[in-house]
């Protein structure tokens, strides 16, 4: 049997392949540069005849940092959590102060004491031939002072600022941890060989250490803005001049969605309801942890006067919050993929329901096993097994390596389930058509999450952070975005509101535009993480371009919705709240990922704001606004067919929709955005180290902004997340009674043309 050809030009497929090849070729070159030009890890750091610490101490300190989940309390190079300090900036500031006091009454070579401090810190005294780094006696004294400082902090008898009491019991661990912080601070000031800026492009901003924004950061910010404005104008001209997506020719008949009692569900589709129930419960748990960590910022170390950090310290709660965001969204995506496959293929192979239940059990084991392991690991209960079963220590990759491997296996099992269902359909389709695109998008999810396995406890921090951001950006922001586009396009095709050819063009447009900016734009996370300046140049330029597809695809998403309204004869149709969630996805995609993302992606802005509330503002509005809203919309779409028709509640769906969107808007515009602007001002005016300190959070009106977030969070949790659990439970209690056996033929479309509907 001949394959069905593509209903659109093959050039769309060819363009997608070419742009991906270009993007990943450039990423491969940048990976090579990271390994080649990463800051050195000296075998010894010495002052005179005294060895202060060694390479093993630096790596060992990084492992202490990982094991105790410190990246989910504070940050290094600006990456991590935002309650605790940035340890790089804190160590550097205190060191510069200490050395400055030693030199304040002296001068050398005509330099003032302050200039002498900056000159010494920027002088790269590493000898490659000896593999040895030499420090002055003053700097050695500052380091010993910092060891004592961190001993008093991590071995405090009382919890403070969200940090648990007696956090790190072993003094040797604290000595190694301080060595790791010292190394990051050294890379932040020591000039790269042959350059007048440090390994981190002079980040963090610290006048006492002679760290100021570089010419590269300013120039590439200007080029980014020029590229954005020019690219925006060009794309809008081309898409205004030509009907690229074919809306003008989309003149199909009005449709009416098939009512629930006319749609039979397969065994695997019936099993999906348990996935959705678990997803909604994980969402509630994720919102509760989010509310708790927000409260830590308003009232550090306490919950309405009760000290909870002894049981639930900030670093563990934030770990859970970040991991649960990934888990609940992923569970909703997995469920929707399994639900749609029988509709696409026209039948379901035997055994799909059993595999679905196996996958659900596997996901549950990974989720709850990893959460327990993270708690035990960060508490120090797992000893040398911390990396495998406990807290791996990287934000977004916190789960122990065993759980990470099992999650990758589970995701590949999901791909196998989809492939079993699509196998016959794929054999009949051109490999550029929608069934294949769904398979490619699904396969990319485990494949690019598996990149996180390239991190390791024996590698340097810069290399580990490079691969971590492949997961954070390429997996979360690019390939989940691709899967999102394919799923939404397929839903609209199955519902009859968009032609297949138009949906295909939208998918390819997404692939081409995102791969042009998003793949290479991954480097915008790594401007100041010890990577060469080429990463800043390419990351800044291409990440600015990411705003263009977000604007364009937001407009096209609106065209999707308006097209659906025109072709649906029912004013209040059964999917109106699911589709409104998709409208919200488009709005938040432009605002959260586009506007708020571009705001912090400019190197000259990122230099001062990285690791502040503006970063959190972008993260929340992009992650929840795009992937969270989509997950909720997909959940409603599937539940509508899984629930007995007369037991469905549009009122609950409406409450959830408005509560989630109003709550997220409140979070962004009442708390995170204004707080981030104030924090940015303090970072420039007073110092980055101060903007990231607890002293900043304790400023009275800053504290007011933190408390002002409470009403929005309460609405988000109670009005937004809880109704989704209730709707899932209703589907479990009152399932759709119409069932169809495996291998039986079922209609592939969820609509009828209005002229075919009785009584029309």
General description of the model:
The protein is mainly α and 760 residues long. Helices cover 66% and strands 4% of the residues. The strands form four sheets. Strands 2-1-6-5 form a four-stranded mixed beta sheet. Strands 3-4 form a two-stranded antiparallel sheet. Strands 7-10 form a two-stranded antiparallel sheet.
Write the layout of secondary structure elements.
Blueprint: H1 10-37, E1 44-47, E2 50-54, H2 55-67, E3 75-76, E4 79-80, H3 87-103, H4 113-122, E5 126-127, E6 132-134, H5 137-154, H6 171-189, H7 215-241, E7 255-257, H8 267-298, H9 314-345, H10 352-378, H11 386-389, E8 391-394, E9 397-399, H12 401-427, H13 434-449, H14 461-495, H15 500-519, H16 533-545, H17 547-567, H18 576-601, H19 603-609, H20 613-642, H21 650-685, H22 688-691, H23 694-697, H24 700-707, H25 710-733, E10 751-753
Parallel strand pairs: 1-6
Antiparallel strand pairs: 1-2, 3-4, 5-6, 7-10, 8-9
Helix pairs in contact: 1-15, 2-6, 3-4, 3-5, 3-6, 5-6, 7-16, 7-19, 8-9, 8-10, 8-20, 8-24, 8-25, 9-10, 9-12, 9-14, 9-20, 10-12, 12-13, 13-14, 14-15, 15-16, 15-17, 17-18, 18-20, 18-21, 20-21, 20-25, 21-24, 21-25
């Amino acid at each position: 049997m001949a394959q069905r050809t593509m209903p659109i030009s093959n050039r769309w497929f060819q363009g997608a392949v070419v742009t991906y090849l270009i993007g990943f070729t450039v990423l491969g070159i940048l990976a090579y540069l990271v390994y080649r030009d990463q800051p050195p890890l000296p075998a010894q750091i010495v002052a005179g005849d005294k060895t202060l610490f060694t390479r093993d101490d630096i790596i060992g300190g990084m492992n202490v940092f990982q094991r105790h989940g410190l990246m989910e309390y504070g940050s290094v190079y600006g990456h991590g959590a935002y309650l605790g300090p940035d340890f790089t900036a804190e160590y550097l500031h205190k060191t510069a102060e200490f050395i400055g006091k030693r030199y304040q009454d002296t001068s050398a070579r005509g330099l003032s004491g302050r200039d002498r401090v900056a000159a010494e810190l920027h002088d790269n005294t590493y000898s490659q031939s000896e593999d040895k780094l030499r420090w002055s006696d003053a700097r050695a004294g500052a380091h010993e002072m910092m060891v004592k400082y961190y001993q008093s902090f991590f071995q405090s008898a009382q919890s403070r600022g969200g940090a648990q009491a007696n956090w790190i019991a072993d003094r040797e661990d604290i000595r190694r941890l301080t060595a790791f912080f010292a190394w990051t601070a050294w890379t932040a000031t020591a000039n790269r060989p042959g350059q007048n800026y440090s390994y981190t492009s002079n980040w963090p901003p610290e006048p006492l250490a002679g760290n100021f924004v570089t010419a590269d950061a300013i120039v590439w910010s200007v080029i980014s803005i020029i590229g954005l404005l020019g690219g925006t104008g060009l794309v809008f001209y081309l898409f205004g001049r030509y009907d690229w997506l074919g809306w003008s020719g989309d003149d199909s008949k009005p449709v009416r969605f098939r009512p629930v009692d006319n749609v039979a569900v397969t065994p695997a589709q019936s099993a999906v309801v348990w996935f959705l129930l678990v997803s909604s419960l994980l969402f509630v748990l994720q919102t509760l942890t989010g509310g708790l960590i927000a409260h830590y910022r308003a009232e550090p170390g306490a919950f309405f006067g009760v000290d909870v950090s002894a049981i639930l310290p900030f670093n563990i709660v934030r770990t859970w919050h970040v991991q649960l965001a990934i888990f609940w969204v992923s569970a909703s995506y997995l469920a929707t993929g399994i639900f749609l496959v029988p509709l696409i293929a026209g039948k379901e192979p035997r055994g799909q329901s059993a595999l679905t239940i196996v996958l659900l059990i596997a996901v549950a084991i990974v989720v709850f096993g990893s959460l327990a392991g993270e708690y035990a690991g960060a508490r120090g209960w797992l000893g040398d097994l911390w990396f495998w079963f406990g807290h791996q220590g990287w934000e977004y990759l916190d789960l122990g390596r065993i759980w990470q491997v099992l999650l990758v296996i589970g995701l590949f099992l999901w791909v196998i389930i989809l492939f079993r269902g699509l196998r016959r359909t794929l054999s009949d389709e051109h490999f550029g058509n929608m069934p294949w695109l769904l398979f490619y998008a699904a396969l990319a999810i485990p494949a690019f999450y598996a990149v996180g396995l390239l991190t390791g406890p024996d590698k340097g921090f810069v290399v580990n952070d490079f691969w971590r951001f492949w997961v954070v950006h390429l997996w979360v922001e690019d390939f989940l975005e691709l899967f999102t586009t394919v799923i939404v396009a397929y839903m609209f095709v199955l519902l009859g509101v968009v032609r297949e050819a138009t949906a295909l063009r939208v998918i390819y447009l997404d692939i081409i535009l995102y791969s042009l900016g998003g793949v290479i734009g991954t480097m915008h996370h790594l401007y100041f993480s010890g990577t060469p300046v080429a990463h800043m140049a390419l990351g800044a330029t291409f990440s600015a371009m990411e705003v263009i597809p977000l604007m364009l695809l937001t407009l096209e998403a609106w065209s999707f919705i308006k097209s659906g309204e025109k072709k649906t004869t029912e004013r209040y149709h059964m999917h109106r709240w699911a589709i409104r969630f998709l409208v919200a996805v488009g709005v938040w995609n432009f605002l959260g990922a586009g506007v708020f993302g571009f705001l912090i992606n400019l190197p000259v802005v990122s230099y001062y704001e990285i690791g502040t509330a503006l970063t959190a503002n972008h993260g929340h509005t992009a992650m929840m606004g795009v992937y969270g809203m989509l997950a909720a919309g997909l959940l409603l779409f599937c539940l509508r067919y899984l629930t007995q028709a007369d037991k469905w509640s549009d009122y609950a769906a409406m409450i959830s929709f408005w509560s989630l969107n109003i709550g997220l808007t409140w979070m962004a515009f009442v708390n995170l955005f204004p707080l981030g602007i104030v924090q940015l001002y303090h970072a420039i005016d007073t110092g980055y180290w101060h903007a990231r300190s607890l002293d900043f959070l304790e400023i009275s009106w800053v504290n007011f902004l933190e408390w002002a977030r409470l009403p929005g969070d309460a609405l988000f949790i109670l009005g937004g997340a809880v109704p989704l659990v209730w709707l899932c439970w209703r589907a479990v209690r009152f399932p759709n009674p119409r069932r169809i056996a495996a291998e039986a033929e079922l209609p592939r479309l969820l609509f009828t043309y209005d002229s075919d509907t009785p009584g029309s």
